[in-house]
Specification:
By secondary structure, this protein is mostly helical. It is built from 5 helices and no strands.
Length: 129
């Protein structure tokens, strides 16, 4: 399988995951705030850090890495949707929510990438003992 096909296949998987998380979040928390976007971005940040940490230590093909990191996780996380949601909140007069939405998602996303990477590194070190 070529790298392009791997990314496309992963993208389809990630997009469907994103869609279903959005539906579930709306049912659980309502649609007044874009919780689905926050959830996928934060979970995606942790997962990409975790998988990056694992993939650095484990011999995995470039196509599989591309399938997972670029395809699935890249499609699952939705920075463009985060931006659209923030602008929509801003435009509707919820300036403070728009600001919090961008700041919280970005700061927690950064922290969760690092946490995921740290968890992967520690777990793999413990597993090799």
């Amino acid at each position: 399988m070529s790298k392009t096909v791997a990314v496309a296949a992963g993208g389809a998987v990630g997009a469907m995951m994103r869609y279903f998380v959005g539906l579930i979040a709306s049912r659980l928390f309502g649609s007044d705030y874009p919780w689905g976007t926050v959830i996928v971005n934060l979970v995606g940040a942790f997962l990409i850090g975790l998988l990056w940490g694992i993939f650095e230590q484990v011999n995995i093909s470039v196509n599989f890495k591309s399938f997972v990191l670029v395809g699935i996780i890249g499609s699952f996380t939705t920075f463009s949707t985060l931006s659209l949601d923030a602008f929509s909140l801003f435009r509707s007069g919820n300036t403070h929510l728009a600001f919090y939405h961008v700041v919280i998602t970005n700061i927690l996303g950064f922290i969760l990438v690092g946490l995921g990477y740290f968890v992967a590194q520690k777990t793999l070190r413990l597993a090799s003992i």
